[in-house]
């Protein structure tokens, strides 16, 4: 049974200029522990797809199931990482990671410290977001997304704004996390090199004439 099951997914937006079909007839299964990347040009519906899986948009037709259950809202079983790190500027690194959990709880403290080490931010626990580089801020948002052991991590072009060096480092961090935790990854990018480097399976979300979009799966190695 796949962890994520998408069947006949259709999504349209009503705009002043009429109906925009963002996704049409998407079928996609993702196995537990898989690292899937979704590539495709700008506007082909990648963000829309990820937001639906994340439970941030529930206005669609078709079936989207996570662990056999209909996706009905954000919830703690899904971690979501956006293109730009969205940190609370008035909170320190460690409080941004803990979010609404108290660092006074020993198990939260322990887990936050472990994650700070994992994303290599030791020494920056008490720093504020404005004191961090872009790469460091993105690592904080990854640590925050990991805190509750999500079954699945959804990443929407998370490294698009980073320079090549920081990006390469972040890709290694993400592969470490995947190897150590077997977190299922769905990673959206328009960069084919990045998609192939990270994933054990790449799918192409293709815009076709007549607004029809189609997913073509290419299975690489998945044990
Ligand atoms: P991608 O992430 O691949 O660049 P998106 O998922 O952002 O693509 O967008 C897919 C299509 O849906 C595009 O044609 C875009 O213009 C349209 N779209 C996305 N969000 C909205 C919205 N909130 N209102 C209207 N149209 C939208
Ligand atoms: P990377 O994410 O690849 O490590 P960064 O550009 O994010 O690259 O930062 C490289 C290192 O430089 C960081 O790990 C940190 O030690 C240091 N650094 C970057 N920006 C700052 C800053 N504003 N204050 C203190 N140290 C910084």
From TrEMBL:
Superkingdom, natural source: Bacteria
Per the record's keyword annotation, is Nucleotide-binding included, yes or no?
A: yes
* SUPFAM superfamilies tied to this protein: P-loop containing nucleoside triphosphate hydrolases (SSF52540)
Q: Which residues form the ABC transporter domain?
A: 4-223
Record-level Gene Ontology MF annotations: ATP binding; ATP hydrolysis activity
Keyword Transferase listed:
no
Annotated CDD domains:
ABC_NrtD_SsuB_transporters (cd03293)
Q: What keywords does the record list, in alphabetical order? A: ATP-binding, Nucleotide-binding, Transport
Q: Which InterPro entries match?
A: AAA+_ATPase, ABC_transporter-like_ATP-bd, ABC_transporter-like_CS, ABC_transporter_ATP-bind, P-loop_NTPase
Q: Which PANTHER family match?
A: ALIPHATIC SULFONATES IMPORT ATP-BINDING PROTEIN SSUB (PTHR42788:SF13), TAURINE IMPORT ATP-BINDING PROTEIN-RELATED (PTHR42788)
Q: What is this protein called?
A: ABC transporter ATP-binding protein
């Amino acid at each position: 049974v796949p962890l994520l099951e998408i069947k006949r997914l259709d999504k349209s937006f009503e705009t002043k200029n009429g109906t925009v079909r963002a996704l049409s007839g998407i079928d996609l299964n993702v196995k537990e522990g898989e690292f899937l990347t979704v590539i495709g040009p700008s506007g082909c519906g990648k963000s829309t797809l990820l937001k639906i899986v994340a439970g941030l948009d529930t206005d669609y037709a078709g079936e989207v199931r996570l662990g056999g259950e209909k996706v009905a809202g954000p919830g703690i079983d899904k971690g979501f990482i956006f293109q730009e790190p969205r940190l609370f500027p008035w909170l320190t690194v460690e409080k941004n990671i803990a979010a609404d959990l108290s660092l006074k709880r020993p198990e939260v403290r322990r887990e936050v410290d472990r994650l700070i080490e994992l994303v290599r931010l030791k020494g920056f626990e008490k720093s504020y977001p404005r004191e961090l580089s872009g790469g460091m801020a993105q690592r904080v948002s990854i640590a925050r997304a990991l805190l509750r052991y999500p079954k699945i991590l959804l990443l929407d072009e998370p490294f698009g704004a980073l320079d090549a060096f920081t990006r390469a480092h972040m890709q290694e961090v993400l592969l470490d996390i995947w190897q150590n935790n077997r977190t299922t990854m769905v990673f959206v990018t328009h960069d084919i090199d990045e998609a192939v480097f990270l994933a054990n399976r790449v799918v192409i979300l293709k815009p076709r004439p007549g607004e029809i979009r189609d997913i073509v799966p290419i299975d690489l190695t998945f044990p």
